[in-house]
Amino acid sequence: QSVLTQPPSASGTPGQRVTISCSGSNTNIGSNTVHWYQQLPGTAPKLVIHSNNQRPSGVPDRFSGSKSGTSASLAISGLQSEDEANYYCAAWDDRLDVYYVFGTGTKVTVL
Amino acid sequence: QITLKESGPTLVKPTQTLTLTCTFSGFSLSTSGVGVGWIRQPPGKALEWLALIYWNDDKRYSPSLGSRLTITKDTSKDQVVLTMTNMDPADTATYYCAHLYSTSSTPIFDYWGQGTLVTVSS
After folding, report:
1. Of B49, B106, B110, which is closest to A32 when you measure between CB atoms?
2. Residue B15's CB: how many other CB atoms inside 10 A?
3. Is A99 within 8 Å of B49 (Cβ atoms)?
4. Nearest Cβ partner for B46 among A34, A91, A105
5. For position A43, what pLDDT does the model report?
6. How many angstroms separate the CA atoms of A85 and A106, rounded?
7. For residue B104, what are the contacts with CB-CB under 8 A and spacing of at least 6?
8. DSSP string, chain A
9. Cβ separation A99–B63 shorter than 8 A
10. Average pLDDT for residues B73-97, to the nearest whole number?
């Protein structure tokens, strides 16, 4: 069971903006950077946002990230059909009995 | 470019030990700040971090899996090996290895292997 909580699902029509939340605590999101991974069906995860709000080379600028306190968010603007995937947040947890944690995952559906 | 590939058995019996190998190219595990991690994903479920090893041989393990895990590296062969003892059907999952770098307070898994499905069944 993950210590980073995400909504199970989110949806939008093409062109809309979708936001996914990731809720944690002082020992993970509150103390460390957050990364976001996109997992298309049947494929390995792909990094889309790192260090709270940095886009790796090649990731479209419609993906953006933010962090405030013990929560983080991933926003997808101008939603496209190829954005339909599962999205996971991730963070280091300073507690010695946890270390690295992924979120529960959010399925984004393009209607 | 950086590539990683997982290899190992696709089927193991309960109580057996699983040994997975991650063979990589495009980077060296002797480079400061670099590492390799293992992550798994049961069918239809979320990602779960298992272990990671850094260039300086520093290792971290998922506490929930306790002493069942061992991660080692062979820099000369560009390989990282993960062993998991006492396998159980609940360990059935796709196992991924990933390149990581640690410029951020949370290690960043920026390149992933394709994954290998391991089924635990008698």
Report:
1. B106
2. 11
3. yes
4. A105
5. 97
6. 8
7. A32, A33, A35, A50, A51
8. --SBB--SEEEE-TT--EEEEEE--TTTTTTS-EEEEEE-TTS--EEEEBTTTBPPTTS-TTEEEEEETTEEEEEESS--GGG-EEEEEEEEE-STTTEEEEB--EEEEE-
9. yes
10. 97
B15-74 tens-digit pLDDT: 999 999 999 999 999 999 999 999 999 999 999 999 999 999 999 999 989 799 999 999
Closest residue in B to A104 (Cα) is B46
In what order do the strands lie in the sheet containing A63-68? A18-23, A71-76, A63-68
Which of A14, A7, A10 minimizes the C-alpha distance to A77?
A: A14
The two structure tokens encoding residue A79: 């939603």
Distance in angstroms (rounded) separating the CA atoms of residues B63 and B42: 18
Nearest to B41 by CA among B112, B107, B113, B91: B91
State the average pLDDT over residues A76-88.
Answer: 97
Identify whether the C-beta of residue A6 lies closer than 8 Å to the C-beta of residue A20: yes
- Joined tokens for residue A24: 């944690």
Q: B60: which 2 tokens? A: 């971290």
Q: Which two tokens stand for residue A20?
A: 């996914």
